[in-house]
Amino acid sequence: MLYRILAAAGLTVLLALLPLPRWLWLVPYLVAGYDILLGAFHGIRSRDPFDENFLMAVATVGAVLLGEYQEAVAVMVFFQTGELFQGYAVGKSRRSIAALMDIRPDVANLETPSGEVTAVSPDELAVGQVILVRPGERVPLDGIVLEGFSALDTASLTGESLPREVAPGDEVISGCVNLSGLLRVQVTKPFGESTVARILDLVENSAMKKSRSEAFITRFARVYTPAVCLSALALAILPPAISLLLGRDALWGTWIYRALSFLVISCPCALVISIPLSFFGGIGGASAQGILVKGGTDLEALAAARTVVFDKTGTLTRGRFSVTEVQGEAPRRALELAALAEQYSTHPISRSLRESWAGDPARHKVEAVQELAGHGLSALVDSLTVHVGNRRLMDALGLDVPDAQGTVVYVAADGAYLGCITLADLSKEGAVEAIAALKKAGVSRTVMLTGDSEEAARPVAAQLGLDSFFAGLLPQDKVTRVEELLASKPAKSTLCFVGDGVNDAPVLSRADVGVAMGAMGSDAAIEAADVVLMDDDPRKLALAIAIARKTLSIVRQNIVFSLVVKIGCLLLTALGYTNMWWAIFADVGVMVLAVLNATRALKAPRL
Amino acid sequence: MEKIYNIEVCCPNCAAKMEAAAQKVEGVSSAAISFVTQKMKVSFAEGADPAAVMPEVLKVCRKVERDVEIKF
What pTM was computed for the model? Predict the structure, then answer.
């Protein structure tokens, strides 16, 4: 193509310098544009003529008939140059998006039962087989570490720059890069179901889900081209006809030339390409930050978010109780006895007690553990009768205990009150900043939903600066609350629900935008949500909204810019202030600028 | 049933037209083309055989753009 353009340009210069017959101009014209003419002919034959080939063909053939040979050659050469440049720009931005998502592993090192290692394609591996991942290599499939210690770089999946330490027994997720040590990994999922394949699927599919702006432009394009073509026809016929009627000179040539320029401007491609490209850039840029967005519509909805509803546990808080305070005369002893008495319990509170105590249970004798339903439990710890439980248990024992706020465990030994332990589900690191960033981004209402008690929820909501919270909710209550909030949200805005993907699939799908957090490896959450945050950092939500806003503003810029330039050029052409060169800029130039603008969406904004 | 094919199409407006044309093919319940990823997603109607339907889809797409390629 480049050679054809150069040849046509060379011939043009030659013809301009030498005194040769004018019909020879047809040679560079055909060199530059024979395929356009063929394409136009093809379009006419299949009764769908309104494409750019047709427009260029009519415009240039018209120019030739008017005797404007140079103009016809110039239009062809510039049109083809523009096409070439456009193809390059589109290809370049496609490649840079693809490079962001270059997490597809090429080979896996399969270890055969006999101990040999062979390189195979990751999709040939079966569950249960053992692979080796060397330092510097990408983990090809999800699996469990059998042997070896290393640090994994999860940046391409989560955007998190801190490496993650892994040891035997840990799960590893495909797409991570092994940084330091050799790992022997047992495959737990076939390639098609592994994290990498799912992410790539999701992002590639996102381009198929048409956004509202895209649908609007497609509809617009369907009307725009025929409308401009008809105006061109009118421009060619009406003014000269009126002049004739008024007894003036018709100036057919001038008006037909202007009409032909119209045709050059009429191609809607700049709009049609730049909008999906902007969305795809935004989605690609987000995925590099560990934010997976399922489609352009979701990006649009995210940008309009004014109400954000959080599930508490696992989203704003760590989902793990920690001992925050031990009161009483012998706090250390109270904690020790509570931890020992609860050592066989699987309740999360028991686990936090044991963690907080951090002693060795094997050095103590615990027997006769009795669950007291709704109260707590009793046990013999080193032959001492210990009661561990709530206020009601203490009341039942006839003990007078001090009042305490929040989640509290009371401890009594040999029928005497020993102390009380306060536990809390601490808010996540970054949760305070996340809420502040959302407020700054124009989110007017932040709400927390939780199944926990009001006492447990209130301090968290206050600490984070949330507008309101609803506590003591059953899963179905959450749906009802979200529906109420949906009904009361500001007009034209959207409601975004953020959950950890566990048990909240109905709410995720009911909200305008369902965001699943910390979903690395959780299939159910990836299915149900519109936006998936790969790690569990709540600050990523504000970043996701910022990316969505930036993408949408680029889309709007492109729509406005292309339309203003095109309509402006159409008007100026109709009035005769421009020539075909301007028309080419309005067509090809605008498209290239819009495509370049679209590639800005790739870069995530700073918060 | 849904399948994704690689497609080579060089004009975004043509891609939109092909999408509309492909949806009218018998056996296709919906079709979407992403110009950016150069992929075409076709949902086939109940009982339709993709191997029989796709040549027809290619044919209607070729009417829009002569040199389009779909790999199936």
Answer: 0.77
Residue A595 CA to residue A93 CA, distance in Å, equals 8
Q: Report the distance separating Cα A573 and Cα A589, nearest Å.
A: 16
Per-run averaged pLDDT (10 residues), chain A, 607 residues: 81 77 80 83 74 78 82 82 76 69 78 85 87 89 90 78 84 87 90 81 73 81 82 88 84 82 76 81 84 88 92 79 77 80 76 78 77 78 82 78 76 81 80 89 89 80 89 83 90 89 78 81 72 85 92 92 88 83 79 84 77
User: Which of A406, A410, A441 has its CA nearest to residue A426?
Assistant: A406
Contact criterion met (CB below 8 Å) for A418 and A329: yes
Q: Which two tokens stand for residue A110?
A: 């399969």
Element (H, E) at B28: strand B28-34
Distance of CA A310 to the CA centre of its chain: 19
SS3 category, A239: helix
| Cα dihedral B56, B57, B63, B66 in deg (nearest 10) | -110
| A218:B16 CB<8 A | yes
High-pLDDT (> 90) share of chain B, %: 11
Catalytic residues of A: 311
Residue A115 is given by DSSP the state S
Closest-CA distance of chain A to residue B36, Å: 6
Ordered by where they begin, the domains of chain A are: 1-100 (no CATH), 108-137+142-188 (2.70.150.10), 319-426 (3.40.1110.10)
Whole-angstrom CA distances from A327 to A330, A331, A334, A335, B47 are 8, 6, 9, 10, 71
Return the residue of A nearest to B14 by Cα. A51
Q: Does A39 touch chain B (CB under 8 A)?
A: yes
In chain A, the residue whose alpha carbon lies closest to the alpha carbon of B11 is A269
Distances (CA, A) of A312 to A319, A386, A430, A460, A463: 8, 33, 14, 9, 13
- Per DSSP, chain B holds a count of helices (H) and strands (E) of 2, 4
Q: So what's the ipTM on this one?
A: 0.75
Name chain B contacts of A278, Cβ cutoff 8 Å. Answer: none
Please tell me the distance from the alpha carbon of residue A238 to that of residue A262, in angstroms, as a whole number: 15
Residues whose CB falls within 8 Å of the CB of residue A235, separated by 6 or more in sequence, listed in order: A255, A258, A259, A262, A574
Tokens of A501: 């993907």
- Domains of chain B are 1-47 (3.30.70.100)
Contact with chain B for residue A269, Cβ under 8 A? yes
The CA distance from B65 to the nearest CA of chain A, in Å, is 8
Kindly state whether B23 is in contact with chain A, defined as any CB-CB distance less than 8 angstroms: no
Interchain contact, B63 vs A46, CB within 8 Å: yes
Query: What type of residue is A171?
Result: E
Chain A CB contacts of B61 under 8 Å are none
Pairs of CB atoms within 8 A across A/B:
61
